[in-house]
Predict the structure of beta-fructofuranosidase.
Amino acid sequence: MAGAQQRPRYHFLPPANWMNDPNGLIQWEDTFHLFYQYNPAGAYHRHIHWGHATSHDLIHWQHQPIALSPTPGGADADGCWSGCAVNDHGTPTLIYTGFRLPEVQQPCLAVSHDGLQTWQKWPEPIIAAPPPELDLLGFRDHTVWQEQGVWHMLIGSGIRGQGGTVLLYRSPDLRHWEYAGPLLIGDAGQFDPVWTGLLWECPDFFALGDQQVLVCSAWDRRPYYTIAMIGAYRDGRFVPHTTHKLDYGDAHFYAPQTMPIRDGRRIMFAWSMEGRSEESIVAAGWAGVMTLPREVKIADDGQIVTLPVNEVQQLRQDEIVIPSTRVMPHDIHWLPVHGAQLEVELILRPPRHGTCTVMLRASPDGSEATVLRYNSRTATLTLDRRRSSLAGDVWRDAHHAPLTLHNDEPLVLRIFLDASLIEVFANERRSITSRIYPTRPDSTGIAICADEAAVDLLAGRVWEMAGIW
Ligand code: DQQ
């Protein structure tokens, strides 16, 4: 499978090699900094460094020299794993996980005195070992904030036999930390409404309006998905009252991190992992892409939703307006557009009891098509990848998002296609982020299909999207 054809053009990724989690997101003066888990040696996860890029608009990025590299013999000898950036009274400071084989994980710290370009590591890990009384599955990934003059840090973990957990620490100076107990222990046996995994990676914790939100990536021998918990935070404990998937594309939306920016928005990036075999990843020479920058919001139904920032609109080129029409049962209505880098906006009225389907990246004969289907009987939006690619080595499972349309509410879709990446936003309250690998050069079409009952296309607009490099 050709690597170049699958490479996104308007989403962030390094020039080559392996990328995973976004790290150290921070707005410093007029510049946004995005660090990321990076292997400069190839398109596989090993000996992880921190890559670095900067932007003035969250959309266009400049690659910067590598920020952190493993120090031979040091606490991070086998990897500088995920972490965050804070402003320590004017000094940019990174807190990250030093990783040593076979599986030692220790919190580490580095500071910059030249405007976030080069970093000096604190000579020792800032916490020597996890609390000895806990039987933990991991001790990694950091979010740090200040509360009444005291630094607070969460570390992702899991308590064997219990479930994912985040451990709370406090410090006067970012270098000396005291364990303050678990902020929250999950219950991995609990499937209702969502299974929360054995280990929580990459915790993020913030207030949004009058709600407190904990975001964690649920792991059990492999990444599963990202969960958002909404609840109350008091005396170092968090009590969630709602838990849901943050994005319904499962492992393709993982390890997100947020930053508050000066205009009041909270911006999130997530890592979208590949969904193809290691052989084709290594052959392509690159792996991993960031989602669009998204603003974190509370949707009208109370779930946390992440929506593309308005700055994304600057990438729109030549708008094509799609006339409204009624698609009769069993008809396929092709839109007058083609492309692999598109933003698509569709307002549809699905049948009251039935399904309506949008085929994306579809070949004229339909042998390749990614199928987005809304079923009003089950109130579910499905992204079906069974026919997304003729390649033999790609992930084909479907993603399902619960979505109830109220009364006469139409289905409002905003879809971003960028080579192998697809991001679907529905009614500003659900998102599905995934990876597709169409192989045919003519798999560029979009069609609306009515199944047993007619579907009204009320309005539509499509834009070709400009590249960001
Ligand atoms: N990726 C990092 C870990 C983190 C995981 C290692 C999540 O710190 O737990 O690259 O994708």
User: Anything to note?
Assistant: The chain has two domains: 16-273, 313-465. The first strand starts at residue 17 and ends at 28.
